[in-house]
Amino acid sequence: FGDDRPEWRETSAKLWAMVLHMMQGTPFIYQGEELAMTNRHWQPDELRDVEAINYRASHSGLAPAELSRRLDAIGRDNARTPMQWD
């Protein structure tokens, strides 16, 4: 739902954070959102998430680019990256 283009990424992230925290209930921050961490692109042989590995095995007929795009969307390995300090 956000816009990943460099000129809109920060504004888009701030607006979505505002929407999340203005909603009723208990908002929570997950997987480095407070630092605006970005997801890393994983090569198929780098995967450690069992769900992503099983998905890769069961969808081996897909084109490599499409499979990579899908694995980036469903994988949980982004939660396992070091904190992106700068």
Q: What fraction strand?
A: under 5%
CA(first)-CA(last) distance: 26 Å
**Tertiary shape:** elongated
Q: Biggest β-sheet, characterized?
A: none
Total beta-strand segments? 0
Radius of gyration (CA) equals 15 Å
| Percent in helix | 40-55%
SSE run: HHH
Unreliable stretches (pLDDT < 50, length at least 5) are none
Class from helix and strand fractions: mainly alpha
**pLDDT averaged residue by residue:** 81
Number of H- or I-type helical stretches:
3
Summarize the structure in words:
The protein has 86 residues and is mostly helical. The chain is built from 3 helices and no strands. It has helices spanning 6-22, 50-58, 64-74. The radius of gyration is 15 Å and the shape is elongated. The two termini are 26 Å apart. The mean pLDDT is 81.
Labels describing this entry:
about 90 residues, mainly alpha, elongated
Q: Which SSEs are present, and which pair or pack?
A:
Layout (H helix, E strand, L loop, with lengths): L5 H17 L27 H9 L5 H11 L12
